[in-house]
Design a protein that fits this description.
alpha+beta; 9-stranded mixed β-sheet; 3-stranded antiparallel β-sheet; 12 strands
Length: 361
């Protein structure tokens, strides 16, 4: 692993490239309020964040990434359009692989702009391609927005769609829900017994948790409503499976997705956005016929992205995490904007990995 001084020098070089592209350098606190991150990601984030607390400020987390604080900063007092760059440490707990760093430096580039979002996607991705080209990395791309559009268009209850959208970034849970909603797996025994009971609270032990009787009753009512909903059609499940299986070069993927859209029209606007993005990428000199596209890409580690996603990988070093990742996160600005929102896209590079792979400091 490269020495820290060399990594810092590489981070400064990368940030200089982003500044030359029009980005304003910004800084964010290392300690972030845990409440905001927990509201966004739920308790799952505790598995990968370092949590601390004090009497005055409550729970805090060592910065797990820069995107959330940069969005908060922009939505508070940022001008439009805006480009930002930053460099500094992020912290990730590593409980399964001791070889993975739990503290490392990221350098990022973000664009907040209302006009021509596909052009902004192409600008970010093309800039990252130019920076990383000497390393010979494989670029992977995807679009979470296409799957989200497919879920939103399912002929099922709003509650079921909400649950599926919440678990898009947890593929195993998403699959389990699809199979249950389609009637392919049985309802869990405990839930079946609860639904069958004339009075589920009869004979119950004294309440000891945080949920009150009204919350429990509302949950039981929601379970009854879910049980009364008809199953997802086999055709819709097959179309979702076909969409998730798309993994081709971008031009071929676009044609495949257009074929699927004939029977799944809800995805047409998202597929059209993909087509405009590919045109924008081609306009910047990228060969989309050689650019990989995976419809499922980004579903395990990019949970605030809701559109275009990308990553760069060293195929000769499968032991390494991605050298760079990024994507579009419009919904995040809506969640943090307190009534405002703005389309946004960006990405981060790990300068330590750039040096490990032979990049220039």
């Amino acid at each position: 692993m490269a020495a820290r001084a060399a990594i810092l020098a590489e981070a400064a070089r990368l940030r200089g490239i982003f500044e030359a592209a029009g980005a304003v350098p910004v800084e964010t606190p290392i300690l972030q309020p845990a409440e905001v991150l927990l509201d966004l990601y739920g308790e799952d984030i505790r598995a990968r964040a370092y949590v601390t607390s004090d009497t005055l400020r409550g729970e805090q987390m060592l910065r797990p990434d820069f995107t959330v604080p940069v969005v908060q900063m922009h939505m508070t007092d940022g001008a439009e359009p805006a480009r930002y760059t930053y460099a500094g440490e992020v912290f990730r707990r590593q409980e399964e692989d001791a070889r993975r760093a739990n503290e490392y430096i990221q350098v990022g580039f973000e664009i907040f702009a209302r006009a021509a979002p596909e052009q902004a996607d192409a600008e970010v991705f093309a800039l990252f391609c130019d920076i990383l080209r000497p390393l010979g990395l494989r670029a992977a791309t995807g679009d979470i927005g296409i799957l989200m559009a497919a879920v939103a268009g399912l002929r099922t209850s709003a509650a079921r769609k909400t649950a599926l959208l919440r678990h898009i970034w947890r593929p195993r849970r998403f699959r389990a829900l699809i199979d249950r909603y389609a009637g392919r797996t049985p309802v869990p025994e405990a839930r079946a017994s609860l639904l069958a009971a004339a009075d589920p609270m009869a004979g119950a032990a004294p309440l000891m948790g945080l949920r009150g009787p009204d919350e429990i009753a509302a949950r039981i009512k929601a379970l009854h409503a879910d049980a009364a909903a008809g199953p997802l059609s086999g055709t819709e499940v097959d179309l979702l499976d076909a969409l998730l299986a798309v993994r081709e070069t971008s031009d071929n993927a676009l044609e495949h997705l257009r074929d699927i859209a004939v029977d799944l029209p809800a995805i047409v606007p998202a597929v059209d956005r993909l087509a405009r993005r590919l045109d924008a990428l081609a306009g910047r000199g990228l060969d989309v016929a050689r650019l990989d596209f995976e419809a499922s890409y980004g579903r395990t580690q990019m949970e605030y992205y809701d559109g275009f996603v990308f990553g760069f990988y060293a195929e000769s070093r499968p032991d390494l995490p991605p050298v760079a990742t990024g994507g579009r996160y419009d919904a995040l600005t809506r969640q943090l904007g307190q009534g405002r929102e703005i389309p946004a896209v960006g990405g981060v590079i790990r300068p330590g990995l750039v040096l490990d792979l032979g990049g220039a400091a």
